[in-house]
Amino acid sequence: MMIFTHTQKPSRPKRQLDDSMVPAINIVFLLLIFFMIAGHIEARNADLQIPASSSEGELVARDIEIQILVNGEYYLNGQKIEKSLLASLQALAPSAESVVTCHIDRNLPFSALDPVLSAIRQLNIKRLQIATEQRL
Amino acid sequence: MLLNNIAPRKKTISITPLIDVVFILLLFFMLSSTFNQKKQLEIKHATSGVSQSEGEAVQIVLQPEGVVEVDGAQYRVGEQSFAQLLNTIAENDSHVRLSARASVSVQSVVELIDMGYQAGITQLNLSESVE
Question: Tens digit of pLDDT for each residue in B70-107?
């Protein structure tokens, strides 16, 4: 009896561990697949919290994208604007059919949107989209 | 010939490193993925439309602390009479020119635009902040 337990002991715990890990690994795989498919990865910026709305319109990526950070920096298609927004927008040669998408921080005063509004007015752009997130 | 006689050694691949990698991938996807979808509010800047409906355009100015000025009359955002006014504007299909004081936050302006769209207003124009 003693000999039997001695011979069995070294291999038994390892096998048992492997067997009991299999369901756990299955769950981990399922979670992995869920997060890979259901979620989407994007660059998050703590300086840009977009406002919330109950709008149902899906945000589609457009050719002109303006970002206004909470510190008042303007980005046009990912590039920081040093000079005037109007001149930078003009360089993109927008047509009347162009759509400007604006990501603006919700805590900014409304006056931060003024350069965008006046620029699109002067360039005769008719469509402006304000990016919002779903109200939870 | 000699090689054939040797019994093939049964190699067992350890799955522990695989699980480690899977765990790391899982952590990465859990922490970096977002689930709330981005939406948009569209404002049609009808630059030509403004001039033709200049006279009948309703001028709405959002003031701080939820006060709204509609053609000179003051309302509060949550008020029943303001909701009714928005419905009336939507029924008349009037053109709305929305603006706000410079100090009003973007979030409250977006909320007002949202209210307008929910009431059924279709012609909304956003203009620069007023002092």
Answer: 888 888 888 888 889 889 888 888 888 888 998 899 99
- Is B129 at the interface with chain A, CB within 8 A? yes
Q: What are phi and psi of A35, to 5 degrees?
A: -65, -30
Q: Would you say domain A52-134 falls under CATH 3.30.43.10?
A: no
Whether B36 has its CB under 8 Å from any CB of chain A: the answer is yes
CATH 3.40.50.300 fits B47-126, yes or no: no
The full set of domain ranges for chain B reads 2-32, 47-126
Tens-digit pLDDT profile for residues A66-104 = 989 988 889 988 888 888 888 888 888 878 788 889 999
Shortest Cα–Cα distance, A106 to chain B (Å): 5
**Cross-chain Cβ contact B39/A51 below 8 Å:** no
Alpha helix ranges (H) inside A9-132:
12-38, 85-91, 114-122
Q: Report whether B43 contacts B124 (CB < 8 A).
A: yes
Instruction: Please check whether residue A128 is in contact with residue A58, taking contact to mean a CB–CB distance below 8 angstroms.
Output: no
The ipTM assigned to this model is 0.73
Q: For residue A113, which residues of chain B lie inside 8 Å, CB to CB?
A: 106, 109, 126, 128-129
Residues in chain B within 8 Å Cβ distance of A20: none
